[in-house]
Amino acid sequence: MKTNLWILVAIGVTVVVGSILFKDFAEQSETKNQRELDRWVHKMLAKSLEMKLSKPAVLIQRALENSGDIELIRDVKNIVRRVDLTFTRHSSSLSEIQVQLEANYSDGTSFSATIEKDWDELPQQIRKEFIQTGSSMIHHTEDLFAISRT
C-alpha cells in the first residue's frame, strides 16, 4: 500500500515538473520566434533606408533594435510612414507561410521583401490568429519603435 502511494506521488511530481519545463520551453521558443521576425524586419528596413539616410545599414539596424541613436531614430521616424506585414498561408503547403514586408516612405517610395517561414517559426500570436479566423492571410501594421524586443 505504501509503495503504491509513493508511486502516485512520484508520478504527480513528474507531471508537475514536466509541465513547468514544457511551459518554460514554449515561452523561450515564442520569444525566439518573435525576436527572429523582428530582426528580419529591422534588417530589411535598414537595407532599404541605407541610401535614403546615407548611413550604413548596420547602424540603422542597431538603432531599430535597441533605440540607442536618438538622432538616427528621429530620421527613421521622419522617413518611414508605414510598415505592414502580411502572412499568407498557401493551400498547397499549410506548414509554409509567406511573410511579406511592405514599407511606405515619406518621399512616396516603398520597399517590399518576402521570406518563407515554417508554421513553427511564426510567433504564437500569428499562429493563433490563423487558427481563430480560419483565414489564409493575416495583416498587421507594425509600430517599429514598439517592437524593440531584441
Give a written overview of the molecule:
With 150 residues, this protein is α+β, with helices and mostly antiparallel strands. It has one domain. The chain contains 4 helices and 4 strands, in the order H-H-H-E-E-E-H-E. A hairpin with a 4-residue loop joins strand 2 and strand 3. Helix 1 crosses helix 2. About 6% of the residues have low confidence.
Write the layout of secondary structure elements.
Blueprint: H1 2-53, H2 57-66, H3 70-79, E1 80-89, E2 96-105, E3 110-118, H4 124-133, E4 137-142
Feature tags:
23% strand; 150 residues; 4 helices
Brief rundown of the structure:
The chain has 150 residues and is an alpha+beta fold.
Helix % is 40-55%
Q: Given the structure, what is the number of helices?
A: 4
Rounded to the nearest angstrom, the radius of gyration is 21 Å
Q: Write the element-wise H/E pattern from the N-terminal end onward.
A: HHHEEEHE
Strand content: 15-25%
Q: Report the average pLDDT across residues.
A: 83
For the biggest sheet, the summary is:
4 strands, antiparallel
**Structural class by sheet pairing and helices:** alpha+beta
The poorly predicted ranges are 19-27
Number of DSSP strands? 4
Number of separate structural domains: 1
C-alpha end-to-end distance: 54 Å
Cα shape: elongated
Strand order of the largest sheet: 3-2-1-4
